[in-house]
Design goal:
218 residues, alpha+beta, 6 strands, disordered N terminus
Length: 218
């Protein structure tokens, strides 16, 4: 991490990284990436921002009638007017993207089940084989990435004023508050549609960013 605890006056202009066009065969994606590293559960960019992502359940418009669709767009417009007004300087990025279904939680749960059967019912070979077949099935599906779902995300960022530890802590505090407010505001605005959001951890944020570059994860 490039941050230190030293008290020094560093201008924000010192975050002078500028993404450039990738020169094939000459530079790696890592060299071109704007990601500097990770701090707590946030992403730090080379351009001087702390970034987090909210994951939402989304609303299926196909199940709504014309009146309900009009109503939800009005609710969304009210949210934008109240929270993303240009005068307030807030920047929200809304992403709707197709992502592979993550089978790892299912695989983990079935592996735990396999261990339980092996320890508690060692003579029950039939159940062990059945559980093992589920594990194999989900691992194959996870490797192929053929089953997809629609992901809905809100990307939030906060400026890191200077390259020092105190500025990093302040940006973390501000971004944490911004994420809480955005989550509360969206869930309140769309409470009639059971919209739920959660703040993703750093590993989940990096996975979303990675899917932009390599959907098949090959």
């Amino acid at each position: 991490m490039f941050f230190t605890k030293k008290k020094s006056d560093v201008n924000y202009d010192d975050f002078d990284f500028q993404p450039k066009e990738l020169q094939k065969g000459q530079k790696t994606l890592q060299e071109m990436s704007i990601i500097q590293g990770q701090y707590q559960e946030y992403i730090v960019t080379k351009t001087g921002y702390l970034v987090t992502i909210l994951s939402g359940t989304g609303v299926n418009l196909d199940l709504l009638n014309e009146y309900e669709q009009t109503d939800i767009f009005e609710e969304y417009n009210a949210f934008l007017m109240a929270n993303v007004a240009e005068a307030r300087g807030e920047v929200f990025q809304f992403l709707d993207m197709t992502i592979p279904v993550d089978f790892k939680p299912y695989i983990l749960s079935w592996k735990k089940r396999y261990i339980e059967v092996k320890e508690e019912e060692p003579e029950n070979e039939l159940v062990r084989q059945l559980v093992a077949s589920y594990i194999d099935h989900y691992e194959q599906e996870d490797a192929k990435h053929e089953m997809t779902t629609q992901g809905h995300f809100v990307v939030l960022k906060e400026k890191i004023k200077d390259k020092n530890y105190k500025s990093l802590q302040l940006a973390e505090k501000n971004l944490d508050e911004k994420a809480k407010n955005a989550k509360k505001s969206l869930e309140t605005q769309f409470q009639h549609y059971d919209l739920l959001l959660r703040k993703m951890n750093a590993a989940e944020c990096k996975r979303v960013l990675y899917l932009f570059m390599n959907f098949n994860q090959s």
